[in-house]
Amino acid sequence: MSKRQPIIKIQNIVASVSLNQKIDLQKIVEKFPQTEYNPSVFPGLVFRLKKPKTATLIFGTGKMVCTGAKSEKESRSAVEKVVKELRGEGIQITEKPVVMIQNIVASAELGGEIDLESLVYKLSKVMYEPEQFPGAVYRMDEPKVVFLIFSAGKLVCVGAKKEEQVYEAVDKIQALLEEKELIYYPAPP
Prior knowledge:
Largest sheet: 10 strands, antiparallel
Structural class: alpha+beta
Distance between the termini: 22 Å
Helix content: 25-40%
Number of strands: 12
CATH architecture of the largest domain: 2-Layer Sandwich
Shape: elongated
Strand order of the largest sheet: 2-3-4-5-1-6-11-10-9-8
Number of domains: 2
Order of helices and strands: EHEEEEHEEHEEEEHE
CATH superfamily of the largest domain: TATA-Binding Protein
């Protein structure tokens, strides 16, 4: 168990949604002029919500992708709100939307300096090319996530499908960095 408590923030959740039916996007544009739809550029319609602050792409196939939520719960409630608003304007949606979390992006601060040069030698599945990018890329198998690791002790975690996986992965990487003596914490004042 680490001596330091990491600061973890969920930055974005990407969820795919299936309505199991076709949707008339032109009808949505007529009812919701604030939506963005330009089929010659992109086949999806963009439906933005202020609360929770999300953008949902809606496709004619009945598939949707919701981005911008900061929790799984917020992601699901955004989808429910979009469906409720569509139904409220007479857009026929017959079934309950099937929501699947595809990717959770989170940031973490470990509060110490990480030795990226040594990281490459002490851990497997690490890519570090400082001329290309200032962070190291580390692929974790369990949970299956990818970390961007920066020398200032900051991490970006992508690929989790559940929030618990983010916390588990950050704890695991922090323990690994400590065990391999790759992180140095400043002495308390």
